[in-house]
Design goal:
44% of the residues lie in helices and 13% in strands. It is built from 16 helices and twelve strands. The chain binds S-adenosylmethionine (SAM). Belongs to the class I-like SAM-binding methyltransferase superfamily. RsmB/NOP family.
Length: 425
């Protein structure tokens, strides 16, 4: 049928996600875990997620394009329909189909159907002048709660480069269970990165890629793969993964041949570790519990991937700057320090502790290590452990850790923001 809506389910679901993220401060990952897209088939689900993510990345530009055509800001749901359509129209979407579907979405809404005329009129204007305006607008800025501490920690040009990386989104990286060259070859066109991860530019459906069913690899950002590589677990070593779920690092440790104990507070997330281990044919002892109360060991090595602001993952979680407001970071910083102190009590004398966070904030990285060194005489940082293929000198920090940012490796597609340091007791 001519002019029929092509993706009504995906667009409706994407707007629903935007309503919850922007209206209620919910995180996309929580909404997905709660089944927000379960009614859709896998292709529509992926499309809804992509539409919501694209809209969140381009939100500032979409609002500026729309502002020219709106006398006042309409109700959030209408605004989100307009935002989603604006991003599509300004990034090559078919004007006729996009406008029609936006109007259909509003027309089908009990209380808001009277707004369909406005939606139609505004989007016709956006279709005509939006695409040219889009590219002239600045790359969307981070909100103040995050931009201010980042500019203070780095500098404005660096933060602008990070914002460009957030706007560009992230490629998909894989970690091979055994042979990275073989995985790169099997996945067709996968590039082997200097640090050993495999980078896919256009992965398509992940579970349909060669090697998924046999567990030859798992999805893990190149930056997130480094803490376990630096910890360098040896066959037979007793290694504790203290905040393990969903298990990317647990699998690296198990693949290295270590006797791994994986612990996480969340039972639901721990199930994902077990599923991941089952798919990859790797083994670990899985425990659900509070890291602060764990009393096992002593261990040869511990990996502490502590809960944090997750501000290093914005390329892949563009909802984070909008859903969060910076509240709770002080509590996370205190929790990270308490976890680090407790982890040290579980180590064998001379054992290794990898502390890492997927945060861009030095308070959750460099400062944690400086403060831990001050609290624990005899504790040292093993900067020598960072001498691995692909790790660049300029990523190293004064106290002996590694600071990774989304704007590094810009030509290769960036990497997640991360901090890591290897401590020796
Ligand atoms: C950054 S994620 C870990 C990612 C994981 N290491 C990986 O590579 O897949 C942090 C984890 O800490 C867990 N967590 C939060 N508080 C905890 C606590 N008190 N004890 C144990 N785990 C906790 C969360 O459930 C979450 O899974």
């Amino acid at each position: 049928m001519a002019n029929a809506p092509r993706h009504p389910g995906a667009r409706r679901a994407a707007v629903h996600l935007l309503d919850r993220i922007l209206g209620e401060g919910r995180m996309l990952s929580d909404l997905l875990a709660a089944g927000a897209l379960d009614a859709l088939d896998p292709a529509e689900r992926a499309r809804a997620q992509r539409l919501a993510a694209d809209t969140l990345r381009g939100l500032e530009r979409a609002d500026r394009v729309l502002k020219r055509h709106l006398r006042k800001t309409p109700q959030l749901h209408v605004m989100n329909v307009l935002r989603l359509a604006t991003v599509e129209l300004c990034t090559g979407g078919d004007a006729h189909g996009v406008v029609n579907e936006a109007v259909t979405l509003i027309a089908g809404h009990k209380r808001l159907s009277a707004m369909k005329g406005l939606v139609n009129a505004v989007l016709r204007k956006v279709a005509s002048d939006g695409p040219a305006a889009w590219d002239r607008l600045r790359v969307p800025h981070l909100p103040k709660w995050l931009r201010a501490p980042l500019v203070a920690a780095y500098d404005a040009p660096t933060v602008a480069r990070m914002e460009a990386a957030h706007f560009a989104g992230a490629p998909t990286d894989l970690t091979a269970r055994d042979d990275a060259d073989a995985v790169a070859a099997a996945t067709g066109g996968g590039a082997l990165l200097p640090t050993g991860s495999i980078r896919l530019r256009e992965p398509g459906q992940i579970s349909a890629l060669p090697g998924y069913a046999t567990g030859a690899w798992w999805v893990q950002d190149a930056a997130a793969a480094l803490p376990a590589r630096i910890l360098a677990a040896q066959p037979g070593e007793a290694v504790l993964d203290l905040c393990a779920a969903p298990g990317g690092k647990t699998m690296q440790l198990a693949a290295a041949g270590a006797e791994v104990t994986a612990l996480d507070l969340s039972e639901t997330r721990m199930k994902r570790v077990q599923e991941n281990l089952a798919r990859t044919g790797l083994a670990a002892t899985c425990l659900t519990g509070d890291a602060l109360e764990h009393q096992g060991g002593p261990y040869d090595a511990i990996l502490l991937d502590a809960p944090c602001s997750a501000t290093g993952t914005i390329r892949r979680h563009p909802d984070l700057p909008h859903a969060r407001d910076g509240a709770g970071i002080a509590e996370l910083i205190a929790l990270q320090a308490a976890m680090l102190d407790h982890a040290l009590t579980l180590l064998k004398p001379g054992g290794r502790l990898m502390f890492c966070t997927c945060s861009l904030l030095p308070d959750e990285g460099e400062c944690q290590i400086e403060e831990a060194l001050a609290r624990h005489p005899g504790l040292s940082v093993d900067a020598g452990a960072l001498a691995l293929p692909g790790i660049e000198q300029s990523w190293r920090t004064e106290e002996g850790g590694l600071r990774l940012r989304p704007d590094l490796w810009a030509e290769q597609g960036g990497m997640d923001g991360f901090y890591m340091a290897l401590l020796r007791s």
